[in-house]
Amino acid sequence: MNDQTVADIKRRAQAVKDELVHKGLLSEEDVQHFLHLAEDWKPENGARVVARAWTDPVFRQRLLEDATAACAEMGYAGLQGEYIVAL
Fold it and tell me: 25 in a domain, yes or no?
């Protein structure tokens, strides 16, 4: 991506955020909270869950029965994991 494309994306994202806040659909605090959570969303999180399931049979069973609750045990809950299914 070139600098102009990045600038355009940032400008559009800011416009969407401003409109959502203006209409009262989100507060500035909501946006900041979401940004804080998004910083922790990484592919490595899923890899940690899988690695634990490989090495801990009790956790694996909990993961298969209720992946949302099992992932919450590892701190992956809320917006990043409201409903998780493990196959």
Answer: yes
